[in-house]
Amino acid sequence: MPESELTVLSGAVKSAAAAVVGAPLEAALRWDDRLLEDGEIPDVFLPDRRMVLIFLLPRVLKALGLPMASFYASLWQYGHGEYGSLKERTPYLEDWYWRPKLSDFMDSTTVAVGVSSFIDQLISELPTMEALIGNWERWEQLRTIARELRANHKGEDTWVETPPDYRGTIGNPFIYLGHKSVNTADFVLKGESITESDAYVALGPFGLRAYMHADILKKPGDERLFVSPKRVAVRIYDSYGFTDGGLDQVLGAMLGFRATQFLGRWANTQTGEKIALANDDFNRYRQDFKPIYNSYLESKSGNRSRLVCRDFETFSDYIERDVAGNQYALAGA
Q1: Is-contact 222 150, C-beta < 8 A?
Q2: In a 3-state reduction of DSSP, which class is residue 223?
Q3: pLDDT in tens, 97-151
Q4: Which of 61, 94, 97, 258 could form a disulfide with 313 if both were Cys (CB 3.0 to 4.6 A apart)?
């Protein structure tokens, strides 16, 4: 699955979808509407079980022993939760993010192996920057930066430049080395239950992005440019939201109805009722439930949080490895 396709579902509900597609009803995640307090939401929404379930998701996931998944559901609904609040990356553009520690997810064998194996791959491929063929895409941004630096130092026989450190930028750091997708199958093959893994239920399928910090230099009497890597790093990138992807829109146009991403089946342990959720339910929650609920809070005592229902991105911190000590002649620069 391309990385762009990883950004259209919330992790908390991707797990439910993956868990029940092609599986018996018993595979549905469990929830209990007794978690809802009397008078907590407007009476008009009580018959709408999907709205009730979405409202209760932070509590449902916590009761299932999935603290990070619960926290992510709370971040989307309220903009804050047990471990912190969303941060605004670009003021006035509704560009919000959360930056977890990657170590929060390293208890997952799938995450730990995915990160470690990706870093090992990056280190083993460092010498390929010297070749014009094979693995060209890995070094595309590095070559672009190197060409710009060569132009800036036109006529100089020797120079050294250090591009900005990836540690100093949240959104699009230098030097980008590509991405790797971690999918549902990876969790299954590692023996992790996708309904019990907190990492999977919080993130679902996600992307790992790789970066390098390095010096770029020209040696006297040599027209080649050299790269002296200092460290390579990997972080998690994911997006938490409920926007239907292009495939859903194409199918809807072909079939003549509104197509929306299925997000799984949830079984009520008290009544036995089973509910199927989809992206449209969360969008309806944002458009219809949120304003009525927030207005309802004005007539209630207490200090309950208002709903924001805000999509956000996840940029974790980095797992790094020191690679200083070698220089490579950069081909194509």
Answers
A1: no
A2: coil
A3: 999 999 999 999 999 999 999 999 999 999 999 998 878 889 999 999 999 999 9
A4: 97
Half-sphere exposure at residue 83, Cβ-oriented, CA atoms within 13 angstroms: 15
CA dist 210 and 199 (Å) reads: 20
Distance CA(139)–CA(175), nearest Å, equals 9
For 324, the 3-state DSSP assignment is: coil
Token readout for 144 is 């672009």
For the whole model, what pTM was predicted?
0.83
126 phi and psi, to 5 degrees? -55, -40
How many angstroms separate the CA atoms of 141 and 125, rounded?
Answer: 15
Amino acid at 161: E
Q: How many CB atoms lie within 10 A of CB 181?
A: 15
Q: Which residues pair with 227 in a beta bridge?
A: 216, 328
Which amino acid would we find at residue 176? Answer: Y
**Do residues 175 and 214 touch, judged by C-beta distance below 8 A?**
yes
Query: How far is C-alpha 154 from the geometric centre of its chain's CA atoms?
Result: 41
Is residue 80 within 8 Å of residue 303, measured between CB atoms? no
Question: How many angstroms separate the Cα of 45 from the Cα of each of 50, 114, 197, 270, 274?
Answer: 9, 42, 31, 19, 18
Query: H/E element holding 41?
Result: none
Longest dimension (CA), the chain: 80
The whole-angstrom separation of Cα 33 and Cα 270 is 7
Which amino acid is present at 288?
D
Specify the DSSP class assigned to residue 9: S
> Which is nearest to 81 in space by CA: 192, 202, 195, 252?
202
